[in-house]
Amino acid sequence: MPALVLLGAQWGDEGKGKATDLLGGSVDYVVRYQGGNNAGHTVVVGDQKYALHLLPSGILTPECTPVIGNGVVVDPSVLFSELNGLNERGVDTSKLLISGNAHIITPYNVTVDKVTERFLGKRKIGTTGRGIGPTYADKINRVGIRVQDLYDESILTQKVEAALDGKNQLLTKVFNRRAIEAAQVVEELLTYADRLKPYVADTVLVLNKALDDDKVVLFEGGQGTLLDIDHGTYPFVTSSNPTAGGACTGSGVGPTKISRVIGILKAYTTRVGAGPFPTELFDDDGDALRRIGHERGVTTGRDRRCGWFDAVIARYATRVNGLTDFFLTKLDVLTGWEEIPVCVAYEIDGKRVEELPYSQTDFHHAKPIYETLPGWSEDITKAKTFADLPKNAQAYVKALEEMSGAPISAIGVGPGRTETIEINSFI
Ligand code: GDP
Ligand code: IMO
Ligand code: MG
After folding, report:
1. How far apart are CA 263 and CA 10, in angstroms?
2. Which helix (H) or strand (E) holds 328?
3. 3-state secondary structure of 298
4. Which of 178, 247, 329, 378 could lock 412 by a disulfide, CB 3.0 to 4.6 Å apart?
5. Residues contacting ligand 1 via CB (< 6 Å)
6. Neighbour order of strands in the sheet with 325-329
7. What does the DSSP assignment read for 101-114?
8. Residue 1: is its pLDDT beyond 80?
9. Rounded average pLDDT over 284-313
10. Mean of the pLDDT values across residues 290-303?
């Protein structure tokens, strides 16, 4: 049976949480494979709204086993507050599994994230300040703390001391901050060990056995393709691989097991934090997209930057992820515009460019070339089939599909679970 990957095709916040939740009823496992509580996934079930940061969106489907894979970075205090919040609302979270190889976001990683941003000044990335980058940096530098380290106090102490050695030099001598005591960090981390223990598992084995047993496994990406550390708009990216390959390294499931890669694509574009964004709008249209689309960050509460749909980016996402399908979200937000511009190519230094330039300098100079499509004014939030959509909305979807290079298999017409038009079934 299939393993499916569901990931963001733009700069995050495409509606991955809603899409994962929608598929949750037909899958056995939902796996987060990268990122951490920098993500903010909104799921609306009936009149209940949930904001998930670290937990896979499958946690809201009782039949589903939610898994935090080895590629994720885990802040235990955030994990417990998220679990507590869900438990108070009657959600059973007891099936959760967490990889013993996942790395822990320590309090000093959060401190380093914040001071580094402050020192970057105008050149800051606009991170979520959750310690994500420094935790992945520790992992790559081989001084990271893993979930399994919580169960060997002497090893944990040695590892925290090793990690803090260099960091305290940096904090005191460069950033003018107080040194962090290793013993205090160890003491705090150990307070999480017992509560975490029942969830800790060899998730690589669990997932591969599940696939051998014909179970359906859904990988849920955090962030989006253009925030990928390798394939995104570096350095204005996150520090992990949300792109499809990350699902394999971040879970220990091989690429031959993956049968479907679904790109979640917003009907327009948004971005949070700094970095290039060719179709960004600074006018009334941008404000209207933000207002109608409720484009405010789930994690940091920052207003999202808004702009028209960018087909160059969508084509790029199709290529680097090997997308088999798109799930187009928030089409309803575009209702009411007489005409809707769509970016089909860029102008860079006087030349028309059809594909995303590999050069950062070129991308910073890219100006959108728009084609204008006719809009629609009818309410589409009750549409159940493609044929229910007004002709111009149908034409908009078809145009995006043609430009983006993969079939649009579902369309979101509202935030709720049922506000979705399913065209091709995913499973
Ligand atoms: P994620 O990070 O990709 O999970 O996306 P976010 O949850 O950060 O942002 C997407 C927002 O759009 C959330 O508030 C969702 O409830 C909402 N949403 C998702 N799909 C649709 C849709 O089709 N229409 C509308 N109007 N809202 C949607
Ligand atoms: P979801 O999963 C949108 C952005 C931050 C910043 C950059 C680096 O909800 O789509 P980080 O804290 O990760 O080091 O910040 O990445 N960013 C997101 N933007 N949605 C997200 O997650 C994001 N996670 C990180 O704003 O620009
Ligand atoms: Mg989000």
Report:
1. 9
2. strand 325-329
3. coil
4. 329
5. 8, 12-18, 39-42, 44, 294, 298, 329-330, 332-333, 412-415
6. 200-201, 97-99, 65-68, 29-32, 217-220, 3-8, 258-266, 325-329, 408-412, 420-422
7. TSEE--HHHHHHHH
8. no
9. 96
10. 94
Cα of 189 from ligand 3 centre, angstroms: 28
Ligand 2 closest atom vs CA 274: 27
Beta strands (DSSP E) in 118-271 are 200-201, 217-220, 258-266, 269-271
- Give CATH for domain 103-194: 1.10.300.10
For the CA of 222, the closest atom of ligand 1 is 2
Nearest residue to 405 (alpha-carbon basis) of 309, 325, 293, 299: 325
Ligand nearest to the CA of 304: 2
Please name the residues in contact with 39: beta carbons below 8 A apart, sequence gap of 6 or more. 12, 52, 53, 54, 222, 223, 299
The closest-lying atom of ligand 2 relative to the alpha carbon of residue 113 is 14
Per DSSP, the three-state class of 204 is helix
What is the percent of the chain with per-residue pLDDT over 90, rounded to a whole number? 97
Q: What is the mean pLDDT of residues 157-182?
A: 95
Question: For the chain, what are the domain ranges?
Answer: 3-99+199-262, 103-194, 264-422
CA atoms within 13 A on the CB side of 266: 27
* Prediction pTM value: 0.98
What is the architecture of the domain spanning 264-422?
Alpha-Beta Complex (3.90)
Residue 146 has pLDDT above 80, yes or no: yes
266 is catalytic: no
Rounded Cα gap, residues 105 and 368, in angstroms:
39
CATH code for the part of the protein at 3-99+199-262 = 3.40.440.10
Confidence band for 228, pLDDT divided at 50, 70 and 90: very high
Q: How remote is the CA of residue 229 from the centroid of ligand 3, in Å?
A: 17
pLDDT tens digits for 252-290? Answer: 999 999 999 999 999 999 999 999 999 999 999 999 999
CA of 138 to the centre of ligand 2 (A): 19
Pocket test for ligand 2, best of 52, 105, 223 (most atoms within 8 A of CB): 223
Two tokens, residue 403: 């430009």
How many angstroms does the Cα of residue 272 sit away from the middle of ligand 2?
A: 7
Q: Which residue has the least CA distance to atom 16 on ligand 2? A: 238
pLDDT of res. 298: 87
Per-residue pLDDT tens for 61-70? 999 999 999 9
C-alpha Rg value of the chain to the nearest Å:
22
